[in-house]
Each structure stands twice: as C-alpha cells, then as structure tokens.
Amino acid sequence: MADSTAASTADSHGGHSHGGHPADPSKRDMLELLAGAGAAIFGAAIVWPLVSSMNPAKDVLALSSVEVDLTPIQLGQGIVVSWQGKPIFVRHRTPEEIKSAEDVKPSDMPDPQADKVRVKTGHDQWLVLVGICTHLGCIPLGNKPADVRGEFGGYFCPCHGSQYDTSGRIRKGPAPANLAVPPYAFESDSKIKIG
Fold it and tell me: Which pTM value belongs to this model?
C-alpha cells in the first residue's frame, strides 16, 4: 500500500519526485544552449591565435608587392626590379617596338598570344615581364640598350639561344612558352604596383 501511495505522489508531480518540483524543459534547453555557446567561444579563443600565427609576417607581405616609378625609364630602356625573389623586366617600348609586336600574327608563334593581352590598355608602351627564360630558368638579356636582343629585338637567352620578341613572346629556340606577365596595375600614369 505504501508503494502505491509513493507512485501516485510521483505521478501528481509530472512523473518526477526531485524535491517536489517538476522538471522544466525550457530551462534545460536554455542551459544546453548556453553551455554550447560557451564551448564554441572557448574553442574559437583557442583556435584564433593558432590561425593568426599562420598568416605571413609583415615583412613577407611587404615583399608580396612592389611599386615601380616609371618616370626615370627613358624610351627604349628597361630596368630590372625584384618581386618575390624574381627579376621583373620593366621596359619602355618605342613606337617601332610596339608596331613590331602588333604586326606579328599570333598563329605564327610557338606560344600564340596577341601583344594587346600582354600589356595594359592605354599603356602599351610599358612591357612588364618575369625575366626568367621558360626553358631552364636563365635570365635573358635585352633590358639594356647594349644587350644582345636576338633577331626579334626583344630578349635573348645566351644559355641555349631562346629568342623573344618585343612583347616577350618566344619566337625561336628551345623555350616552350612566352616570358610570363606578372600581376600588376597602374596606380598612375607614372607608377605601377606589381603583385
């Protein structure tokens, strides 16, 4: 008889006899939500410094781009700057060099590419190239006026005889591809940013 009295008392309290108060499902859900949110914030607080430490250092980011003042580069001359450890050729092309580059049919080249896609619109007098031969990674000649420029007036790699035209496109020799064009943009008519 005592057992049936205890069971009826438990039933009258919603099936729970914890201190005489029924369990509130909304409080339990709220506690679970708060515990989950706290765990997520704690996890983020631990992971964030780890992820942040994987970002490049400020000195590395500084090397990821370089600004070049074009003002001192005379017509027909070129300079070499360093970007991400690579030589970058910046050449101020003459009208004759531009015409020579534009007059060639891309279909006549080993690596067909029109001159207009290798220069920026409105700034076709400026040629910006990664100065590494696409054959074996040598540095071609052609930036200095006294340099040997090959049959096509552009760049000449003396190591194995690859010859590039005034747009940096391979025209003769063992190199399989044109000199690469790095990512760059004009910040003004006299300044570019590479990278």
Answer: 0.68
